[in-house]
């Protein structure tokens, strides 16, 4: 080898060596990068590009600020609330079944991410009560870039609810129309607050957009778009007895909040949701209607059955008793909050029920101006009752007008029932006697009530069955001694008239009360019964309801029945 060629060969070998090492480095880097991409979640990379946090960068603890929008103090009651706010006023023979008090949350802290689920568990801190744990995924909103596809290439999909742990893809009519939606629904909600606490009877939250309901965490989250200034957090007990601390102590408190992070959706719904509670005073016939049936009709009727009910504090026996009505209002199986671990996604959610005065609907405020006439018509339809209006007197000469007397067995009983029946039959009525209580077959009793033209009874929950009366029928309420006229009219008189019924109220005299057997005639309880109301409800109940029966003065009462007959004339 020539002396000049050796250095050239050495230099060539060195260059080849450097190229080889460079190739090894490039290939090695490529393999490492490929391994990282394969092992890592690709959606985490996507969300990093969109300014969202990947799972690996999620902070181990995030303190969620509690900013509670509190309504004005509603804990104070008027003097009448003591009478009409308790189930015992209208029916001491009913079965009221409250549940145990649920713990209230003061604050919560996000704990370490769960590597198996890709979600972060929300648990109460040592200072909070917290009924259930919450699972939240640190995800983001934001649009997916058009053109990205997952799944089968032949199908058109759109990411509506992006999360950190994986893509959530859902078919949408908007996709077929070429529209893209970021899922926040911010245009639908606008600047309207999530909740309205201005009603004296009930608090209600209503959200339109991307709403996620997590029963296990007793939370409802309204997803906000990036850059939104909305910062709302509300605490609500979805039972329409606002200010009644005893009642609400048995109701699970829910958290409604606007947020930019939330658990991923595990179940999608194409219909609105209505969330409400079934404890409180349910089990009392009057409260079954004034606290649940009338409010849920007012709230859910507009959806024509296309609505999902989610129930906190489930009372299975109650849903069985009223399954006919519930199935008319919703075509979907009930969801029990206490037994559901899904994260439900809706576009429209109502938390709480619209409620107004006792056993009534304020048509000026109700959705679609629903009224008690509508409710009366709905109840007749739900139970397939045959009569929409009373039979005109004399239209069928051989058919007598029917009078139903609600019989009681323990309190506020008619002591001279046979005498009352004889008088009514003398006036031309066909008299029917029956008892309405919590164990009654409501469907069977509804059919009976719908066949009569007049219904009468002493103040009590049995009079609630007037919802099954045909239009233009008459309800007669006997008011016991004790200054109970106002509450009696509020509970049954006003609702009856708003339903399109005739209403007569008969207040008994001292001589018609069994209290004369317990107190001397010159006792203050007969001279000024209203003065005893200051002693509170327990005294009122024990004195004027539990220990009082009625011996009706048939001569004095006779004109009331004659007026009921006149109402049957056109």
From TrEMBL:
Residues 383-476 form the Glycosyltransferase 61 catalytic domain. GO terms for molecular function: pentosyltransferase activity. The chain crosses the membrane at residues 20-39. Pfam families: Glyco_transf_61 (PF04577). The keyword Membrane applies. Pathway: Glycan metabolism. Residues 74-111, 128-158, 170-182 have a biased composition (Basic and acidic residues). It comes from Panicum virgatum. Residues 64-192 are annotated as: Disordered. It is a single-pass type II membrane protein. This is Glycosyltransferase 61 catalytic domain-containing protein. InterPro entries: Glyco_transf_61_cat, Glycosyltransferase_61. It is found in: Golgi apparatus membrane. Keywords: Glycoprotein, Glycosyltransferase, Membrane, Transferase, Transmembrane, Transmembrane helix. GO terms for cellular component: Golgi membrane.
